[in-house]
Amino acid sequence: MADVEAALEAAGLTNPHVLEYVRHYADLTGAERIEVVSAADDARLIQESLDAGELQQAGEGRYYSRSYHKDTARSEERTIVATSDEKDKGVYNNWRPASEMKPLLHDLMRGQSAGKTMYVIPYLMSPPGNDLAPWAAGVQLTDTRTVVLHMIRMSRVGAHFLEDLEDPSHFVRAVHVTGDLENLGQGTPDDQRYFVTVADERTILHFGSSYGGNALLGKIAHGLRQGAYDGWASKKFLAEQYMLIGIKDKQTGTDYHICGGFPSASGKTNLAMMLAPDALGERYHVSFYGDDIAWLWVDESTGRLMGMNPEYGVFGVAKDTNEKTNPTALASLDEGTKTIFTNVAYNPGTGEVWWEGRTKEPPADVTGWLDWTGAPIADRKDEDDTPWAHPNSRFTTTLDNVPNIAADYDAAAGVPIDAIIFGGRTRDREPLIRAVHDLAEGVYDGLTLGAEATSAAEGKEGVLRYDPMSNRPFMAYGEGDYAQHYLDIVGAATDQPIFAHVNWFQRDPEDGHFLWPGYRDNLRPLLWLLQLRNGEVTGRQTPVGIIPTEEELNLEGVEISPEDLATILTIDTPRWQQEMEHRAEHLELFERMPDAIWEAHRRVADALGREDG
Ligand code: GTP
Ligand code: SPV
Ligand code: MN
Question: In degrees rounded to 5, what are phi and psi of residue 318?
């Protein structure tokens, strides 16, 4: 048996509550060795993974990995929030009693680490010293070395984060056991996987995957599900699947901050890494604070709504990342960045990687190229047009590799929030941008976000569904209570942010092309939003918010036809009237939905009704 105490002590981890927790799970899983890791262990662990064949070299200072072919995305069905109070049951959180889930997970994990090392990862999901740091400390246990390497990139890792806690018992206990991936019945009625957050005990128990949000427990499980629950239970904060950016107007010297939620694989990373379009680059600069998670709170001394990114890295979608769409991303995953690629196409002979949309055509010379499953491209039949890379293949890199990282991203204070935006893949109805000044209408708009699901979750791509606040897969407690908590937190701020709904994904009904060029040009509607907030433009009032006039949008250098532009700046009233009926049904699903949200719904529905005149 492993000597837990000696391992922790040698690593300077003396917190007795950590010792008790690690000892418990080392006993339960039967781990043979304990190894406490810190960020400084990265180079050694990389070398060990290379030697063991878990990683391969992808050029100088970059690495390639492949996950088991049935383990390539989050599983929403197998993800559960458990507590001891049935009142926490929502529509989307797959609530189960803690008394049922804990023994079940313990049974699944029992003895699974026999002969293996249990890595102990002390981490912090916030900039050090932040107001919310007391909810940000955690210790992940894992049996998989590449999960450690991902955690080192995605969160701040080191024993000291657990040594200086005000309440030494107040940290998240996050246990990850991979299990025998080849015998877990993924996607069958006999599925053995369980990804459980026991939210009222601040304990995360994930069994049956070594991929992404299923396995890196700081990110989604703590940063979103546990964070959301803690924010509500403490009445102090919101934890949202939001990107967070700064926009500097170099002419006036003003800094703005915008955060916002788009569902998984719908453009947060791309927006956060946005390079201003050439025509606007002299005047504006976009800086990256976060691309996937933001925690929001009100600063007690200034009364302002503040935001920060709890993460330390980027777990980005590879597909369609190229020089034109996202040069910033390419720089952040260049050689020497220690980026880890997962499930892209790989050429072991040359160390090159490739994914759909990296270049227009795949490499012409297929010699040596392997698809994401490891099968040689050269052996493919001519008619085989399956993608070389998995659609949810990703790159993992740290924030300090991101060229537009904000100078103060690591500062304790966080940044004041001027605007909150929602968006998703919506092929019709939703215009380029529509702004909403009223808090309840903004929250209502977020709650009724409808979008196409993506391959970030198993078996869901293209399905149209409501995804409240882009948080559907990460909801931790009842949606009505969530809406009230959101109104309370943002409502307590002295200077209210403006809300907006954006859509980069409207398509031509005939040939399917995207009407808006997107990517770098997405800065334009955001600049309009800030001008609207400043009273510099007035836009055009519609029943569903204020939309820009063509003259107000800075379109210098944009390639778009007049017809396409007119479509994305138009409200299709009959289509919206239909939508309102679906929204009413959607909101009725939730218990304790605040009156203010229903009132907002009725105001919008009435305004649409009046359009018929
Ligand atoms: P998660 O990490 O899963 O939460 O995803 P995300 O929201 O950060 O999505 P990301 O920015 O990685 O984008 C996902 C996909 O959408 C990528 O394939 C992008 O190339 C594509 N995409 C992003 N922005 C745009 C845009 O403005 N227009 C179009 N057409 N595609 C976009
Ligand atoms: C998402 O799916 O929204 C992600 C990727 O950010 S994962 O970490 O796998 O959840
Ligand atoms: Mn995400």
Answer: -75, -40
